[in-house]
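User: I'm putting together notes for a lab meeting next week and I want to include a structural view of one of the chains we've been expressing. I don't have a solved structure, so I'd like a prediction I can at least talk through. The sequence is below, exactly as it appears in our construct file.
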Amino acid sequence: MAAVGGVVALVAPDSTSSAAPSSSSEAAWRLVQPANRAGKEVLSLASTPGGGMWSAAYDSSTYKMTVSRLTAKGWTPVSVPASLTGTLPEGVSATSASNVWVAGQKTDKSSGYHRALVWNGTTWKSHDLGAGYWPGGVVTTGPKSTWVFSATADYARFWNGSSFKNQKIGVWPRAIGGTKSTDLWAVGHLKGVPSVAHWNGTSWKRTPVPAIPNLDTNGEAASTFNSVVPVSSSNVWAAGTIYTKVGGKTVTKALLGHWNGTAWKVAVGAAGTYYSDMASDGAGGIWISQGTTMRHRSKSGTWTKAALTVPAGVSRTYVSAMVNQAGSRTVWAAGGMLTGNKMQSAYWH
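Assistant: Thanks for the context. Below is the predicted structure for the 349-residue chain, given as structure tokens.
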């Protein structure tokens, strides 16, 4: 793996061997399929600080959303009013069973614009996000602190408990995460260059990222960080994909960044690689998805990889979200599996 700006390779080397089950964190990922899986693809996952698990899925044939909660009986749907199910969920976030947010694009013909939905443990409430704002995700740190962000705008809609206000971020965010409400990181890009910004409780400030040579900033797709995992204030990981020129052609390369409390370092992978999503492993390390390959970096820096369990007959597998179940070493991945022209939701851990 190539280092950028004098960085030691942070990305898993190409020679990483398949992970023989030498520890629980390296075992094969087990498939869990809910009973109501037909037609749906899970698009987002969230864990509360207490370990409660939530998901949001979408059926593109009926244009309907399903929100589910992990219970003793497995992934169980939570009732959503019919007037709100016409939402394409771009993100779900929760701090408790009485503060669950879903941000998404309105797909029905009702009046209004794209929306953010909040569950207070009893009922759902919908907040209109206003004309021209396309939500790309949501992060809540409490009932009076929720960020709805967009990949097509350099500002977020911040909920203070009574109303939404615009907050300039300075990057076009693909993900926001943090260890507390006054220590958040937004990762994404600015003009096709991977970029990050930090929230200190008062304002967002861009933080320098080492320059990456030969970026193709004129293409349709942006080189960007897609995911962020703050393990602590001095241990933050960001993963994504860049588009770079190699021999006159544009190719993808996996991108991994690390914040050590003082500065960001980055490294890129070989041509043809990419990183989609990322989650903490609950023990100081990280898991990163690359298609159906799950790459693991331990706290000590050892890289291994494992594959998702995929049944015979599945023609295509999508991993749309990953999250660590707080307070444990369990990591969930979710998405969908296509068999013929039939989609089914899927969870792995």
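A couple of points you could mention at the meeting. The two ends are 28 Å apart (CA to CA). The CA atoms of residues 67 and 79 lie 8 Å apart.

User: Perfect, that's what I needed.
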